Structure formats: C-alpha cells, structure tokens
Amino acid sequence: MRPVALLLLFGLAPPAAADDLLAVYGKARANDTVWAQARANYQATIEKAPQGRAQLLPTLNLSAASTNTTDQRVITPTSDRSYDYSTKGYSLTLTQPLYRKQNFAAYSQGRADAARAEHELTGAEHDLLLRATQAYLNVLTAQDALDFVRTEKAAIERLLALTQRNFNVGAASLVDVHEAQARYDLAVAQEIAAANDLELRREALRVITGDDPGALARLGGALDLRAPEPADMDRWIEAARRDNPQVRAREYALAGARDELEKSRAGHYPTLDLTAARSYSDAGGSTLGYGSETTTNQVGIQLQVPLFQGGGVSSKVRESYARQDEAAGRLDQARRTAAQQARESYLAVINGVARVRALEQAQASNQRALESTILGYERGARTGVDVLNTQRELFRTRRDLSQARYDYLLARLRLKAATGQLSEDDLADTNRLLAQR
C-alpha cells in the first residue's frame, strides 16, 4: 500500500459493552427529576376525582363530651341555692346532600382534573423519551465530529510529513508545506473544541439519566429511509390537533373551567340536605334537684336559600367566566402549537430522507474526488493544497451526513409525539438501528 493510501482509511472500531438507547431511557425514567415531578403531580391531581365524588356522599360526624362538672348558684327572691352535678353525652349526625348544585359541579370537575392529569403525564412521558433520545444522539453527533476531526488531523499530519519530504527533494513548494502546517494547526484547535463539545453533551445526558454515561451504541449500516405513512401532511396535522397529549389536557382543563363556572353560579342556588341525628345526655343533677337521662332521635330535610352574600358570588362568577375564556385560549394555542409541531416534524422527515440520500451521494463523490486528487498529486498534476481542500470537503460531508442521519431519526420520533402516537416501541425501532454494527 502506498503511503498516501493511508489518507483513505477512516474506519473506527465499535466500543465494547456499550449502553444502547433503551438502557439510557431506562435510566432516565428512574432518575430524571423532571419526570419525577410529573409523576408526583399526576399522583396528586388524580385525587381530585375521589375528592369530588366525596361531596356527593353522606357525611357522618360524632361528637362526644367527657364528664362535665357543673357548679351552679341560683338566687331568687325567696332562695339562694347552689347545685353541683356532672353531665356526659354524645351526638351522632348524618347529612346526605339531596341537591347541591356546586357538589355535582365539583364531582364533574374532579373527573376532568384527573383526566387532564392522565394526558399531562402522557405528554411528560413523550417529552422524557424525546429529551433522552436527543441527548443520546447529541453525544453520538459530538463523538462522530471528534472522530472525524482526529482522523482528518492524522491524515493532514501524514500529508504534512510527505510534503516536507517532497519539499526537501524539490518535488513540492514551500507554499504546500506552509498550507499543510496551517491546516494541521487548525485541526489541532478543532480537535480541542470537539472534545470539549463532547464533554458538554455527555454532561447534558448525565443530567437526564443521573449517571455518568459510558460508551454508547453507535449508528451503523444504512438507514431504512421511510417517508411518513400516510404521506399526507394534512392528515398528520389533523391528528395532532385532535390527539396531541397537550391538546387533550387543555380540553379537559377547559371542561374543568366550565365546571368551576357552574360551581360559582351555584352560590345563588338553594341547597337541600337530608339530616339524621341521635343524641344522648346523662345529667347527674339539675336545678330541679334530680338527674335525667335523655336520648333524642331526629330526621329531617334542611333547606337553605342564599339571599345575599355581599356580592361575593357575583364576583366569583365573573372571575370564573374570565378563567373559562383563558382556558379556551390555552386550548386554541395548544392546537396551533401541535399543528405546527406536526407540520415541522413531517417536513423534517421528508427533507431528512432527501438530505441523507443527497449527502450519501455527495460523500461517494467526494471520496472519488479525493482519490483522483491524490493520484494527481502523486503524478505532479495536483498540489498538496488541492489534496487538503478535497479532503476537507470529504470530512465536512461526513460530518453533515452524520448530523442528517441523527436529525432524521429524531424527526420521526417528534412526528409521532406531535400526534400522540409515540411509544417505547418506536424507541425500540430506533434502538435497533443504533445497535447495528
């Protein structure tokens, strides 16, 4: 093999015992603080449903008095007497709401809040999956960039040595030597920057997983470049406006705001309750000079009609109207955002397919151009600068192709997330591509 042929060797050995995307996602689910907050919020919010239901059910209260001692003095025009006796007893009260408009609204609102929490948790899960995947791919992108810089630096170093030898025997100009040296110095600086960027990307991944990332499975082999199915952007946009988790959550938030308005209006409505009570009292004495033991059972219907509360109810109704308008605005904004995400992700997948294919063709063309330039350099028809320029274009194309492949993979997941279809199966499909060798 000729010495210059070493410039064409850019193969990299795969790392051993590498974590794949599923393993990283598993760590993120266990350790990511944003996901932990989302789960805690979900657990808290779903309790709104039983709290609302409780307002439709009866309440039972027991009050009991321990022995109370009474020391009483009674003065009349004809007597001045003192009484000293003890009393004990209990009271058991049952209340069953028959008509409380605000309670029915609270029950409906609790169910809406719980449903909203379900969709918010789904959205948080999608967000975690995307964040973990993006952080993972960012590390791979930075690792590829560092590998390309190092390989280019090594190739420039070999060409620099060859150019110096050729200059010593009069077969190369001083310009070639200086240009090769300048390119080598630049490659050293680029290597430092790429290594720093890799460390920053790894730190971003560590924040999500809570663990120092080791070697990661790298993308290998040809990608199965597929356009979205169905190949109709409008259908994806419509699905996003309908099924996006944030849209669904905002729909239930609007339903909850409507229930809150009904609760506020209920302040003007009467209430009707069924009440039942049993009380017992045992008095050891009285002003009559003897004790008594009393048991009382009561059953009745209690009606309360609000007449005036200082304008507070009317104010609460006005506030609830404004909150309802706010919730409706947030729903409309969520639909617009979901449609935008679906549109951008759909185009990113379509353009990603075309870009990857174009860059693959460009890489093949640049590879042939480099081979031809090297051959021309050996025959004296091309200069070392020509070799450096052609080599630089090849490495730039490789770097751009690497980024385009990762962008395409992420765009596929983002499109699924925008329409509420993202699942761990999609992550597993991506992981199979990353695990290729």
UniProtKB/TrEMBL annotation:
InterPro entries: OMP_efflux, T1SS_OMP_TolC, TolC-like. It is found in: Cell outer membrane. One of its GO terms (molecular function) is porin activity. Residues 1-18 form the signal peptide. This is Channel protein TolC. It comes from Candidatus Muproteobacteria bacterium RIFCSPHIGHO2_01_FULL_65_16. Belongs to the outer membrane factor (OMF) (TC 1.B.17) family. GO terms for cellular component: cell outer membrane; efflux pump complex. NCBIfam families: type_I_sec_TolC. Keywords: Cell outer membrane, Membrane, Signal, Transmembrane, Transmembrane beta strand, Transport.
